[in-house]
Design goal:
By secondary structure, this protein is α/β, with parallel strands linked by helices. Helix content is about 30%, strand content about 20%. It has 18 helices and 18 strands. The strands form 4 sheets. Strands 1-5-6-7-10-12-11-15 form an 8-stranded mixed beta sheet, covered by helices on one side. The protein has a 6-stranded mixed beta sheet with strand order 4-3-2-16-17-18. Helix 3 packs antiparallel against helix 9 and helix 13 packs across helix 15. The longest helix is centred in the last third of the chain and has 15 residues.
Length: about 525
């Protein structure tokens, strides 16, 4: 079925949308007639970020150190917030905007690797952002460590053509640099003074010894970068790493989930305060609540969870959108007599996290019939098979067509592929599915498979960066009226035809009345 665009909300969009990955392999980008123009946007010194590079992994070590020796994020966040309050920020950390009752905004997550996949999102994003009032980045603005010196090619340059403000919530990678780069760019905050060294010997002392220190700002480079988004219409200063935006008939609440996904007690108290009342609300979080068929309610220091607040009918949340996982997922969860739309939107430019490793969905009453993801599991498995066939020089073994991949996943998970396929499930396709982590019924060749599925998610996905279409990136456009909120997920495949008219991969309209 061809989906039609609505001409409302001031959007300059085509009258009809192209076929999506749910309609055909062409809609998925497998038969790319012409590569996109995004390569022309890349700066001359841009390098593809490789997560197989030991230097990149070493620079990202703070995640592991926080898990081993204790996470200092909550204490550091409190220092940043105290600094902002002393500088005159309003205690409610609320941004009052003058948006009309009907308006639109953009949302994309996990953007900043600064290489071709990030820039491949830009043309379609700019096309579909026409008429929007602002944009929100939901996690991990800058990879791998949130460095202030990487904002030029990974934030200011790619979005210099977006003529509206951009707000953001930090992700775990933004915290690897102590959040200094994020706070400087989005909040106008200077560096924090260094803390006194922890006592020796202690876990905190050992963590501090190994911890990556923030980069020294290159002021000339930063000034040059900031000039790329210096028009008055682009300027925005948010009060802190978490915030609320009152925009027209809705409130958007952004929370900072740090490195490990929890929030401190002060932020928890603030969240309860700004969430109270009947005004419809959208939560934007650095860590999704439902993802990969599992539930992560988001602990709050001292007790309670983020999702308890989201589910409270007195708070009137209609959607919760999280980044961190680099794909698109949608879980419509019934809570009492209403439905809350839980969305993962982390496909804004970073390497793709696998969807073919997601088991058959049955969580919080959401079954496979209601669940949506992008890329489709079959396309994802075909993507991985192509990539590992090329890297291991075993193309005849690993490479599957998208139809073959959809067929074997359908059989493994007991689901009907969204695109019809008549491809047979053979010993080879089943073997590839086992090797690449497809869950479900074991195959007789399953002894080839690595013993722990999480190994695939943790190591194969970061190694999955590809620079050949289809790239399977995505972003959201949200259209608001006093009566409804419409959320659309658009694909960025890297194909020219999809830059001109991005396909719609999912769409939901939520009543606000």
């Amino acid at each position: 079925m061809r989906r039609r665009y609505c001409g409302c909300y001031g959007a300059a969009v085509p009258p009809t949308s192209p076929l999506s990955s749910r309609d055909s392999a062409t809609g998925a980008g497998w038969q790319c007639e012409q590569p996109g123009t995004y390569a022309e946007l890349l700066p001359g010194q841009a390098r593809n970020l490789s997560w197989l590079n030991p230097a990149v992994l070493w620079r990202s070590r703070n995640d592991v150190l926080a898990r081993w020796f204790g996470d200092p994020t909550d204490d550091e966040r409190r220092r940043w917030v105290d600094r902002q309050l002393q500088a005159g920020a309003s205690p409610d950390f609320t941004i009052e905007r003058d948006d009309p009752e009907s308006f639109s905004f953009m949302l994309l997550g996990d953007t900043g690797e600064g290489d071709a996949p990030q820039y491949a999102v830009v043309p379609g994003f700019l096309k579909m952002s026409e008429g929007t009032r602002f944009a929100v980045i939901s996690s991990d603005v800058i990879y791998p460590t949130g460095s202030i010196n990487e904002y030029d090619t990974k934030f200011f340059r790619p979005y210099q053509g977006y003529d509206a403000p951009i707000y953001a919530v930090p992700g775990n990678h933004d915290w690897y640099d102590g959040l200094g780069g994020f706070m400087r760019v989005f909040c106008g905050a200077p560096e924090l003074p260094p803390e006194s060294a922890p006592k020796f010997p202690s876990r905190a002392w050992l963590r501090r010894l190994l911890w990556k220190n923030p980069d020294v700002p290159d002021e000339a480079r930063l000034a040059s970068a900031e000039s790329l988004r210096s028009r008055p219409s682009q300027r925005a200063t948010q009060p802190g790493p978490y915030w609320a935006i009152d925009a027209g008939p809705i409130r958007i609440v952004g929370i900072d989930t740090g490195i490990l996904g929890d929030i401190d007690a002060d932020q928890g108290a603030w969240l309860r305060q700004v969430s109270a009342g009947p005004k419809p609300k959208i939560l934007v979080t650095g860590k999704p609540i439902y993802v990969d068929g599992a539930y992560h309610p988001g602990p709050i220091e001292g007790g309670g969870t983020v999702d308890e607040i989201v589910r409270d009918p007195a708070c009137n949340y209609v959607a919760a959108i999280g980044g961190d996982i680099h794909n698109y997922q949608h879980y419509p969860v019934k809570v009492g007599d209403r439905t809350i739309e839980y969305v993962v939107s982390g496909g804004g430019g970073a390497f793709m996290h696998a969807t073919h490793t997601i088991p058959r969905v049955n969580v919080a009453g959401v079954t496979e019939d209601e669940f949506k993801c992008y890329p489709l599991r079959g396309d994802c498995l075909a993507f991985y098979g192509r990539m590992y066939g090329r890297r291991l020089r075993m193309r005849r073994l690993f490479e599957l067509t998208s139809e073959q991949a959809a067929a074997v996943i359908g059989k493994r998970l007991g689901i009907t592929p969204e695109r019809e396929t008549n491809a047979p499930v053979t010993w080879r396709t089943s073997l590839v599915a086992s090797l690449l982590g497809v869950p479900g019924r074991p195959h007789r060749a399953n002894w080839f498979r690595l013993p722990v599925r999480k190994v695939y998610q943790r190591f194969l996905s970061p190694a999955s960066a590809s620079y050949v279409p289809p790239l399977f990136k995505s972003f959201l456009r949200l259209d608001v009226t006093p009566e409804s909120l419409r959320i659309r997920c658009f694909a960025a495949t890297g194909c020219r035809e999809h830059e001109i008219a991005p396909p719609i991969e999912d769409e939901v309209t939520i009543s606000l009345t």
